[in-house]
Amino acid sequence: MAQTPNAIRLTGPDQTTARRDLMEKTGKVFLIGAGPGDPDLLTVKALRCLQSAEVVIYDRLVSDEIMELVPKDAVLVPVGKAPKHHMVPQEGINELLVEHAHKATTIVRLKGGDPFIFGRGSEEAQRLVEAGIPFEVVPGITAAQGCSTSLHVPLTHRGMATGVRYVTGHCRNDVPLDLNWSSLADEATTLVVYMGLAAIEQISRELIANGMRADIPVLAISKGTTKDERHVLADLRSIHQVAKQAELKAPTLFIIGEVASFTGQLHVDEGTPIATPAKEAAHG
Ligand SMILES: C[S@@+](CC[C@H](N)C(=O)[O-])C[C@H]1O[C@@H](n2cnc3c(N)ncnc32)[C@H](O)[C@@H]1O
């Protein structure tokens, strides 16, 4: 016989009712991606879930504008993670989800970007499965997508980049990053480096040592899609110095690849007359 989520065996004619009662005792958790910062980039589903939340367990990267959309009577639980400083360790966040699911009906776990891209959303989902708590995952626009489109830089472009890779530049306990550098040093693929502000010098050095051109363009974007967005464009050889001089702050991501040369290019000045198609012009 199939087991109930919390491993209690139900037998006899009351099994369906008993199972329903058991389920009714837990709420549902929504693991929601809040996107890169701009509240207009929330999905309609994320907004609907947020507006019906009783409890919101949220990360530091979720913008104030998005937090303003949460109902005034919702319980707010900050678990903000700052670089090198986890306010609530991941295991603690997992337990908070389980705890609140036993007390409330609609629990929102709100994360920057997408919950399943460097968001540890899957670890939280594993814990919910273990505890038999129903949940749903609502995708969010990733920082890579938000930052690149904000600056009109495509992550792929025919003849320039046939693919894109997202990698983490986060070093655990200050140990140098150990990535597969020879596979990453592929100029046909755009490389998006998350959490790489502290390690960008090592990243550039390793990529160049593994054959990537030192003059390949690199775009660094800080606080993308927010009113505080800033960016710098440099080449792989100098990006660490340029980012440092510009005093870019976290969250920052790096787009490494030929596509970064689109920065400032896909742009039309307001007030530019609309171009007349040649055919129409020929016919007067
Ligand atoms: C823990 S990861 C979260 C990624 C997120 N789940 C996503 O889907 O994009 C945090 C990193 O994402 C990047 N990031 C998040 N929001 C950003 C933003 N608005 N601008 C630039 N980078 C951002 C930074 O590299 C930051 O260190």
Automatic annotation (TrEMBL):
Pfam families: TP_methylase. GO terms for molecular function: uroporphyrin-III C-methyltransferase activity. Keywords: Cobalamin biosynthesis, Methyltransferase, Porphyrin biosynthesis, S-adenosyl-L-methionine, Transferase. InterPro entries: 4pyrrol_Mease, 4pyrrol_Methylase_sf, 4pyrrole_Mease_sub1, 4pyrrole_Mease_sub2, CobA/CysG_C, Siro_Cobalamin_biosynth, Uropor_MeTrfase_CS. Pathway: Porphyrin-containing compound metabolism; siroheme biosynthesis; precorrin-2 from uroporphyrinogen III: step 1/1; Cofactor biosynthesis; adenosylcobalamin biosynthesis; precorrin-2 from uroporphyrinogen III: step 1/1. It is an enzyme of class 2 (transferase). PROSITE patterns: SUMT_1 (PS00839). GO terms for biological process: cobalamin biosynthetic process; methylation; siroheme biosynthetic process. The keyword Transferase applies. It comes from the Bacteria. Residues 28-238 form the Tetrapyrrole methylase domain. The keyword Methyltransferase applies. Its EC number is 2.1.1.107. PANTHER family: S-ADENOSYL-L-METHIONINE-DEPENDENT UROPORPHYRINOGEN III METHYLTRANSFERASE, CHLOROPLASTIC (PTHR45790:SF3), SIROHEME SYNTHASE-RELATED (PTHR45790). Belongs to the precorrin methyltransferase family. This is uroporphyrinogen-III C-methyltransferase. It comes from Cohaesibacter gelatinilyticus.
